């Protein structure tokens, strides 16, 4: 049974002195494709340029290092342990009498973006009511819980993070009260100046209840002197640096905002009754029968209420967008449209490019399910070789398992993936996967396929080698743990034990994206960061966990390694870029 909480607008601490560094903003009209019942109301003001962004690299583990297993054979199981992890997904709905139930369904569609916690905040009679819990959406919510969330407006959140005794307090959406009312927020991304903002707020008297960077947003809104409310959000967001796609809810408004670089996705749609829907991916819109209209633009704030309909504001001018390319490689579902592109079509083309640039004589093409399937289909179609299901994935493996006393080699992978001997035995097999991070899972998969009788195993990876950590809201290991940052392609091939190995070429990826190529962030492949990380420190594996932090911020320094501010940037970053060009 998943732990969960229900609460009504807990009060946030009041801060006596505001943080300075205010800047004006620019508001501009946007044309909606299908306005229906909510017209778009243009607003106009001026703004000065302000676009400083840095970021952090959160490394998450599932159990505290100092907490022993309940029993020796009780082993934590990590789903897709060797993959980067998207941190969360958000949903916002305005103008539907079943807002919370639709939000619940939309969160189901976004479950792949976070499986550790879920929550919904609904507004009824000007009261914000919240239900949050640890576990999958279906674990947290039932008919009784949803009946506690009436109203025509709701926001929701699914979260990937660590497990631990204090995890529940960090499950979003967060709700807080301040002197003019209550506000709820759900956030996808990383605020990289979190430590600086938190220190400033605490100096002014703020008391923090969580270790989440999202909580600083509520404090900034509470201390803002701007009027009306949505200008408080603008005022708060102007102080934030990093990646954020957020939805807010108040007694009468739904607000969606996206950071100036557009690192994380956020889309807008409408239902046939005119209800406005915001979500991290279009697959959430599809499930609740909302029609996709457009993306929330980088740097844009959209405000929805009954009086004025939808208002579009530009938070601040921004440079060229730097959207996360890994949304198309791994994170998003294939049936989603992300950054204006079909994820399915992108992955299919990745596979076609691999078949053209790295052909090999083979009898069958298989995928590492589920994220490698579409690229494998593209490879097989281009190569003229049959695609078959050589690996069957179990979707019913829990977060933990009990291993027999007699150890079984590669037990975790065998629980999740089962080889089909009839497909593999005596065959030359091409295995298509979306990425290689540490290489540990890939080596086990190759061994699994060879034990099933495969004569040859050729790995094809539908992304370039990952040589740099993400500082913009994705959970990736430190650069030292990334196998492509430590080994050449040939050395990786030897490590994972396959007969040949080829990655999607970085130049080919950019060529495929054509005129949109400059709009994506490739820092994990090139080591060239759109905005250099400065303040943020990077967590070590197995050290202090994000969800277990308590006490003053200084007490956690032992669990962090140096951020880029403290090292020679040219020495550390440029070699990564040079290696990627070899």
UniProtKB/TrEMBL annotation:
Keyword Aminoacyl-tRNA synthetase: no
Keyword match Translocase: no
Catalysis: reaction(s): 5-phospho-beta-D-ribosylamine + L-glutamate + diphosphate = 5-phospho-alpha-D-ribose 1-diphosphate + L-glutamine + H2O
Any GO BP annotation: purine nucleotide biosynthetic process
EC numbers: 2.4.2.14
Gene3D superfamilies (alphabetical): 3.40.50.2020, Glutamine Phosphoribosylpyrophosphate, subunit 1, domain 1 (3.60.20.10)
InterPro entries xref list: GATase_2_dom (IPR017932), Ntn_hydrolases_N (IPR029055), PRTase-like (IPR029057), PRTase_dom (IPR000836), PurF (IPR005854), PurF_N (IPR035584)
Residue span(s) of domain Glutamine amidotransferase type-2: 88-307
Pathway linked to the protein: Purine metabolism; IMP biosynthesis via de novo pathway; N(1)-(5-phospho-D-ribosyl)glycinamide from 5-phospho-alpha-D-ribose 1-diphosphate: step 1/2
Keyword annotations from UniProtKB, A to Z: Glutamine amidotransferase, Glycosyltransferase, Iron, Iron-sulfur, Metal-binding, Purine biosynthesis, Transferase
PROSITE patterns: GATASE_TYPE_2
Required co-factors: [4Fe-4S] cluster
One GO MF term: iron-sulfur cluster binding
HAMAP family (UniProt xref): PurF
NCBIfam families associated with the record: purF
Membership in a protein family: In the C-terminal section; belongs to the purine/pyrimidine phosphoribosyltransferase family.
Name of the protein: amidophosphoribosyltransferase
